[in-house]
Design a protein that fits this description.
Elements lengths: L5 H4 L4 H11 L16 E9 L9 E2 L4 E7 L1 E6 L5 E4 L3 E4 L6 E6 L6 E9 L7 E2 L2 H6 L13
Antiparallel strand pairs: 1-8, 2-9, 3-6, 3-8, 4-5, 4-7
Amino acid sequence: MAHNDSAHDHGTDGHAAAASWMEAAKLLAHSDPVAVPEGASAMTVLIEWEPGDPGTPPHRHSGPAFGYVLEGAVRFELEGEPERVVEAGGTFWEPGGDVIHYQDGNALADQRTRFVVVMMCAPGKPMLELVDEEELAQRAHRRAPRPAAGR
């Protein structure tokens, strides 16, 4: 039986295929160090917020979370960091654990926002836990200063 190399190389030599793969991959974000809870599970979630939706109330995750904005813009705020807007094509991450995630809502009043998040969850823990008003008040000193009204 004759050997047909073209069936294996799809019309390219091995070096060209390797170079093509390298050019196709684009690093979007790198987070170091990352602490993943032992025995964690991972989930990928698509979030879709309608125009102006404030998003999830203040919460925390048991493990790290990594996000990529597909469309629109996310108003993002972690405890100890200033609020920022992550536009389509941008990334964000949070370490999980004790850190409060204050905002993940739609920063746009006239357009839907969509983003994908990959989360690592500790065994037996929920995907996210809401933070109550009492804890928010106790930790208010850890929140970055709020933007002035009208900005």
